[in-house]
Amino acid sequence: MADNREMAGRASGTAPDATVSDAERDAVVTRLNRACGEGLLSLTEYSDRVQEARVVRTRPELDRLVDDLPASGRGTPEVRTEWHVVPVGGLRRHGRWHMDRHLVSLTVLGGTHLDLRDAELAAPEVTVTKVSVFGRVTVCVPRGVRVVLEGGSLLGLPAGLIGRGGAGRACGDAAPDAPTLRIRTFSLLGGVTVQTPGP
């Protein structure tokens, strides 16, 4: 069996266990970005596979990261907005859940707490809009996800980013085409905390 693989590799001009190039890694990461944006991978699955793609050395190891993904995508996702409107009370999402392209939370008093590690995104870029008098936004995302902060609170502290950059721009070390979470906040007193758990 091994001899057959070696013969096939010689015939194609590529050894079956040859070290993969940076271009091949980038192509796999791009495919993973697209799959995550189509809801085929949770953010944690996406993050784990991207990190593995950066360190594997052979073609079979790299191929294994995308072998279970369909050859073609699901097409253009439908634009949907989920509304959460309550006078008093917060919004909490965690575990395996589907995030629409736009999540809007309107409250007088109450925070928004989102754990996106096992979430499936409806699009490559999703947006959370939080409008409240008093309320804070706390999100947890795995490594490799872009987070963009917009807006702010009149009396609250600036957006607090744990392990990330500043407000008003893309944060973290994610690629420009990585899945993106955009957080827009408008409040009298509040703020934003973005948490990135360690590996």
UniProtKB/TrEMBL annotation:
Supply the InterPro entries for this chain: DUF1707_SHOCT-like
Q: Which residues form the DUF1707 domain?
A: 20-70
Pfam families linked: DUF1707
Looking at the record, which segments are called Disordered? 1-23
**Protein name per UniProt:** DUF1707 domain-containing protein
Native species of this protein?
A: Actinomadura vinacea
